[in-house]
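Annotated sample (chain length 162).
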Amino acid sequence: MPTIPPPTRTSSALADRRARSAPSRRFEGAITTPGSGGDLPDQSVLPPPERPRRPVAVEIAAAILIVGGLTSLLSSLAAPGVVGLLFVAVNVLTVIVGVLVRRGRAWILAINVVAIALFLEVTALPSPYAVIFIVLDAIVLVALFRHRDWFFWTAEGAAEAA
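Output written by the structure step:
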């Protein structure tokens, strides 16, 4: 029958060292102390309200304003006289308003610019190009009216409502 050698001093010392170096997993996942030595945050203070996510219709409206304004700007550069300058001004303003709409600003300005652009495009109605932009501007106008509350959101108003 084979005999098992008695444990040597080196094997037990190695086992002791392993036991001491292995982290204890007894309290793993337990929250026992606050973060890096600081106090726990006051749970009675509400965090500041965050702005609601941008509605998809507003995102689409901003994209239509920016891309439509740039596209119309390229085509209106060839228009002669005062009418051409008016179209260029409206298209540049449309691009600027599209950026502002995307940031949640200038709702009234956006409504007015889109209404003026819609009126100017109705005057060019026999053109299929005008029909496309009339439909796109109507979509933008509906989206702006539909989500006007998102534009008027304020942190103070949200804190009062809570």
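Annotation: The chain has a mean pLDDT of 80.
Annotation: The two ends are 81 Å apart (CA to CA).
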